[in-house]
Amino acid sequence: MVQVTSPAFKQNAARAMADVGLQKALGTAKGAFLQRRAVAVANLPEFERLRDIGRDIKDHALANLDHYLERYAQAVERAGGKVHWCSSAEDARAAILRICRDAGARTVTKGKSMISEEIGINEHLEAHGIAPVETDLGEYILQLRREHPSHIIAPAFHLNREDWEADFRRMHTDLPKDRVFAERRDIMVEARTKLRDRFLAADVGITGANFLIAETGSSVIVTNEGNGDLTQTLPRVHIALASIEKVVPTLEDATSLLRLLARSATGQDFSVYTTFSTGARREGDLDGPDEYHVVLLDNGRSNMLGTEFGDMLRCIRCAACMNHCPVYGAIGGHAYGWVYPGPMGSVLTPALAGIERTANLPNASTFCGKCESVCPVKIPLPKMMRHWREREFERHLTPAAQRRNLALWRYVAQRPALYRMATRAAVAALGLWGRGRGAVKSLPLAGGWTEGRDLPLPERSGAGGTFMAAYAKQRRQNGHAR
Prior knowledge:
Keywords: 4Fe-4S, Electron transport, Iron, Iron-sulfur, Metal-binding, Repeat, Transport. This protein has helices at residues 9-17, 20-42, 47-63, 65-78, 89-102, 114-119, 121-127, 137-145, 161-171, 184-201, 227-233, 251-265, 320-323, 326-331, 342-353, 355-358, 370-374, 381-394, 400-413, 416-433, 447-450, 467-477, and strands spanning 82-86, 107-110, 131-134, 204-207, 211-213, 218-223, 237-243, 247-248, 273-277, 291-297, 439-440, 455-456. By secondary structure, the protein is of the alpha/beta class.
């Protein structure tokens, strides 16, 4: 497993908010996702009903996961493919390396796959003399920069057009000096000139899978660039790399989820390319690989089944949660420190890497609830982040001072008379402390809180200035008994 840097989340976030280029990219990209999704949802009257259907499909598949995985594996083998069962990232890396060596591979092309990031396959192949080539436009530029994706569907979300141009001029040494990159098309043309030969030279192609269909043994991949199709059909060997929760029972189930996926992700009715792959090339087929392999990864997911985090396995990787998250929108994806950023990463990463290494992530939320409201399969992300906070507290991972303060607050809150007295005293003290200043800019014992924000002064009123006093007064005015 690659190094998880989420213990440094606070420092990462501070750097991200001070990064002018990143803030420009986030401001430009995020709005387009939100607007397009809103239009797509408004144009589909049955969208809410479809969310219920999608949730139920995934829940049924997860409740019977062993059955559908076995059916899927049997269907793959009937179609001439082979399934490799991998319980860990190490197992998956070993299986892929073995397939590549058996094929005599020197070059491997890759279609976008977050699972490949999860297991660190690029670094593993390079260490064994095999060159991986990213073929997704965003992934390609990140490979040139030696960076990891910052978003699960738009990997170069954090870059501006001038960043692309600068990296092309730095890495493509034969680029004419008078070449202009005025539009996105110019970027695509330049990348295509380099990637075309790589597609033709590749011995093995690796793609992810949005869904695995138990009924037919098919893997499904959606793209907008066509690189997934070229990666699957041109090399002699195709490897579909997927995690176990991607399996769904039938073709009909897959198409129902596809209706949710693109609308939630990019605001399209469907992605430009939606490709179903079933086994190796058969006699009479015009294209396709000679060998078809599926590397199925668990890597801790089976431990989530039947727990308070099991709903996370419904995720179809649309990224709607992070597109709408105010925290992600302020700091981008790299601050989260691993493969999966945003709200879904704040739940999934602790499950895969351990809460001991990732405790900052479930706390990186305003709990506005927007992530749950836009999730196409209704994953209760805020509730699961609260569960991780509970685990963090139970294991004494929170700072001692925070635990002491919470214990003090609990003691006072459990005693109503003491609570009322304490809040009245606090309101009076804040009024004196901030007199003539309009707001409290620093507080003793709360410097960490006021370092980044001012504390508004409480409203002064004849009711005593506390919420409870104001509420009691309003009830009396409305004719209610105390």
